[in-house]
Here is the input.
Amino acid sequence: MKTHILLIISLLMFTLLGNSTFAQIDVKGKVEDKTTSRVDQRLDEGIDKTLDGIENGIKSVFKKKDKKNKDKSENDEMDDNSEMIGSETESEESIDSKPIKEKTDDKPKLESFTEYDFIPGDQILFFDDFSQDAIGDFPMLWTSNSTGEVKTINVAEGKWFHMNGNDATYCFPKDIVFPDNYIIEFDIIPDSKYDYGIDLTLYQTDPENVREIEDDLYPGISGLHITLAHDKWETKGYGVDDEGNSLDWIIGSSNKNTVEKEKVNHVIIWIQKRRVRIYHLGAKVIDVPTNIYAESKFNRFRFYAWDRNSYPYISNFKITTASPDMRSKLLTEGKLTSYGIYFDSGKDIVKPESYGSVKEIAAVLKENPEVKIMIVGHTDSDGDDAMNLDLSKRRAANVKNYLVKEFGIGAERISTDGMGETQPLVPNSSVENKAKNRRVEFIKQ
Here is the structure.
């Protein structure tokens, strides 16, 4: 046994000291002498240190091994119901009704989202965050040919629509007058089994066959399929000719920045007449200049979940007009209302998706160096009055900070204030109206 230990130590010291040093000094012999009589003090001290290092290293290895075995034993004893997100064996319900994970980075950098060149307009055409719905109910503004329910989950705040039906269609059953230029935004959380994914379809209803629940594969007389798969994006424009025959698809595709499983994905779709652009994770992932058939007049939208193994969650679905004339509104009218400055609920940190709107305001100020502005924050009526007032002031101050720090606008040109919930544009009687009241205004001084 002693011989084996000496051999192991000699081999380790051969590796540590190198061939040339080992050839010049009979380390093996010295180790043997050290073990029996500890001669040659100077070399002994070096050997002592080496022996100590080896001993500590061996102890460390066994400690790590013991800890690993202990952790494994503890994990084996865990209750079967305490599932972890991302586990291969987790059920689709495992992200429901658990504590929200604490975020480690709540100050994202705007500069990482410089491809976010869209600018939401000053009108909200539709909004739903399911806050008006009871947990466990099907959302009141939607309809379906299958099941679904509103839930809370552990990876994000708020309420989420769990589209958990097989081969299911989820429709908003009323008409929306889409302009030529508009933006659709929503958050989606794919579950662990998300594969092909889900389709968002914009379409024009057939006036001779208007249906509340449109479950055809290609609904209406024209439309646009937008597929959010785990490994790709796909857009597919479709239509019919004057005789009712189907036209060829107009297809766009990309595998850039695809949606991530079990995470909040904020998807932005900008429609500008026939052009379709999609943004995700700080970049433009799709840009097809002629993706929609000419003369299409979309008036409905739906989600189609035909991936039978996956049941995603959505929330914060919003449709706004796009690209207001900021220069005209601010310089001529003296006031600009923006729905393109984003904050998390109850937070004052400007989110990266705000880049396009903030950049456009900065461009107006740079082109007109004599112009000064006041930034005013507004909230809806949910929550405490005093807290809303304070939150609106902090949000306005942070918008100013971004204009100053990221775009070089002089701080002396910008003042800020917050009105909380005291100046609503419309009554806070619905989720859509509340969304209209949550805004940032830029007022020419």
